[in-house]
Amino acid sequence: MSVAKAGTLATMELVKRFEDSYNRHDPDALMADMTDDCVFEHVAPDGKSFGRFEGYEQVRGFWASLPANMPNYHFETEDVFATDDRCAYRWILTFDLPDGTQAVHHGVDIYTIRDGKISEKYTYASLL
């Protein structure tokens, strides 16, 4: 197996484990797969919500806030592909709204992997 192929498989496994941790609502497991100097950046469907979080504490704080901000959230994988230390993950996110209906968003995450952990995660989402 070539080094590039081994790197791609390791990246796919890491991202799969990371996304599984999302669905368990487990910020500690998410952070176990991120570097201490990680960056998470997102643009939300309303076009106004934007955030950039840098470092362990800021990023973990964002993950920990998700259950309160998006009750019962769940990601479903639409597609995922990687090459070496880069990965694109296309998903559908659902969560409960205060009126009892469910929000549905489509999005893409772009990952950069360094030393076996996620160093950058960029999220772009839109309403379905």
Protein described:
- The protein has a 6-stranded mixed beta sheet with strand order 2-1-6-5-4-3.
- The N and C termini lie far apart (40 Å).
- It has one domain (3-127): Nuclear Transport Factor 2, Chain: A, CATH 3.10.450.50.
- The longest helix has 21 residues, at 3-23.
- The model has no long low-confidence stretch (mean pLDDT 91).
- The protein has helices at 3-23, 27-32, 55-69, and strands at residues 34-43, 50-54, 74-83, 86-96, 102-114, 117-127.
- It is globular and about 45 Å long.
- 33% of the residues lie in helices and 47% in strands.
- By secondary structure, the protein is of the alpha+beta class.
- The chain is built from 3 helices and 6 strands.
Major sheet size, sense and barrel closure: 6 strands, mixed
Could you give the count of β-strands?
Answer: 6
Structural class: alpha+beta
Sheet-strand content, in percent, reads: over 45%
**Helix and strand element order:** HHEEHEEEE
Shape: globular
Ranges where pLDDT stays below 50 over 5 or more residues in a row are: none
- Overall mean pLDDT score? 91
Determine the fraction of residues in helical runs and give it as a percent range. 25-40%
Number of helices: 3
The CATH topology is: Nuclear Transport Factor 2, Chain: A
